[in-house]
Structure formats: C-alpha cells, structure tokens
C-alpha cells in the first residue's frame, strides 16, 4: 500500500506580508497530480492544515477544493488537527466527510479508533492522534502529568491496545503532531512547550509500522519508521536550506517500510545576506540572489542612508532588513547597567545611542537630545504645578 505523507500546509499564511495563496494552490495541484501519477492509495496529513484557528475564506476555499479533488480520485485522506488548527472547526462534518473518504481525526478521545484501509495483503489500521494540548487532554487520558510525554504516551497505549485486539498481521500507521526528541526545529514553528518540556521520545510510538509526524517544518528521518514530512513551503528565512518535499511511503505485506521524497514546487528561493551595504550592492557573487526573497543584515558601523531603497534596486524581492553594527568594542563583558552608573540623563541617552548604533551621537544629535530632556523637565514642572 502506498501513502503520501505531508503536513503543515498552513493555508492562509503569508511570508513577510507576501501572500502565499498562489504558492499553496500550486502545492495542492502538485499533491493531487502526484496522487494520480504515483497511484497513491491514501494521503496522510499530519496537522496544521490552516495557519490559524479562524482561517481566511480564501484558505478555506483552497482546502475545500483540494478535498473535492482527492475525493473524486477515490483516494482516502486521513487528516489530523495541529496546534495551529481549531480542532472543533476542522472537525465539523467529519462524519459525513468520512463517507466520501475524507477522514478528519480531531477528537482526542477517538484516537484509538482507526481508519481501516485494505489491500491484497489485508487491513492497514491508520490511527490519527490530533495535537494533544496537555492541560486540556490530561484528564481524558488519565495521564500522570500535564505534559506532552504523558498524554501522548497514554494515547499511544490506547492505540496499541486496539491494535493488539485486531487480527494478527494487521499493519498500522499513526499520525501525530508533536516535537520528537532528536528532530531539528526552525523559526517558523509555534512553541508548544508545556511544563517546560515540549520534546517527546520517539519510543512513545513503538508498536506501529509507520509514524507520520507533523509540526516541525524540516523534512527529517528519525528512524526507518518515524519521519517528519516538513512543510511544503518555507515559512521563515531559517528554512533557507530546506528541501521541501513529501514522503511517498510503501508499506509491504509484512509491514516493512520504503520511503522516497517527492519534491514540492518552490515559488521563490530564499537568501540570507550579511555584510556592509556597499559589499552587498557590489559583490558579483551575489548576482544569483537577485530573484530570491532576501533577508539582509547590515554590519555597517553607522546606519546607511535609505538602505532598503538601495538594496531593492539590486534585490527587488528583499523582504527583511536588520542592523548588527560591527562595533569593535573590547569591553563586551561590562554590563549595560554598570555603564550607566553615575551618569546624567543626557549621558545615558548618548551612551544608549552608541550602544545600539555602534557610533556616538554627533553635535546635532546631542543638541536634539538636550532639547528633548529640557522639554520633558519643563512639562513635568508644569504638571506638578497644576496638580498643586
């Protein structure tokens, strides 16, 4: 039996205020085309279908269209809710949709009730564990602690108990939305820390033939049977070097797993550039990034004049600009608070300018600061007089 494992669509999300709707539509077109061309038997979506609990109408329409096309192909889809989704909203109509082969698993209490698929070798039980918020699901599972390890462990105990009651040789798959120990996160994932611990051991999922994970946006293999598909698109510049893909998983008659990556369409490359403005504008080696979405970090000791406009002429798709001046300050061990002791308000303000910009305030800027402090003092005196 062949499965297409994907996750973290985040429909409705933008990239630094640039709409990704067209890119998400292209991905879903690619997914449907892959299902058709690779003769996929079922699609597994391991959570974060939407980017937020109340998605925009355009995202809902995109989701609806994708499900209709998968249903028309007669290919079952098993989908769980992630930490970005509203489980209740995503699960509306789950019973009716299940009759069309779209199986939404959003209720924690039903995680041990599998979707049963079959091929020439028998049944495959597909268990969907939606994102389990520890504080909300501890009581349901009778977990000893309100943390991810306890509630996911209790949920998997239910899964294993159900599987043990099925005919010998029944193959199994579990979908889960979690941060598993040993995996690498990136900047675009929402923190799911609970009780100071968010990562769970992969051993929690022992006993099933394949674990389709969601939540982390990088495609990763934690073991032959435990994998993250990653997000189909990049949602932060920290994903600059990610290869975006889905897993095409083949489950043989004995539960053996073979998996190959299917690349997803890339709307635009990402580039993180760092250096002085003149170097970024003049270095011919950076020509390859002219069509990329660019994040630039300037290291000039002084903030250049209108740097964004200058960079946009060479990199028309620049989206982010940051400043990290090269100060050369040898006294890095001295705390900022200690440097303020015994100084006047004027001196503190001038020191602050030096601290954040890497260069001292000039005479004109000193005069502006002085005028500002004088105005504040005068206003304070007036306020006190009125109050008196």
Automatic annotation (TrEMBL):
Keywords: DNA recombination, DNA replication, Endonuclease, Exonuclease, Hydrolase, Nuclease. It comes from the Bacteria. Residues 267-355 form the Nuclease SbcCD subunit D C-terminal domain. Gene3D superfamilies: 3.60.21.10. Residues 1-218 form the Calcineurin-like phosphoesterase domain. One of its GO terms (molecular function) is exonuclease activity. SUPFAM superfamilies: Metallo-dependent phosphatases. Heterodimer of SbcC and SbcD. Belongs to the SbcD family. SbcCD cleaves DNA hairpin structures. These structures can inhibit DNA replication and are intermediates in certain DNA recombination reactions. The complex acts as a 3'->5' double strand exonuclease that can open hairpins. It also has a 5' single-strand endonuclease activity. This is Nuclease SbcCD subunit D. It comes from Actinacidiphila polyblastidii. The gene is sbcD.
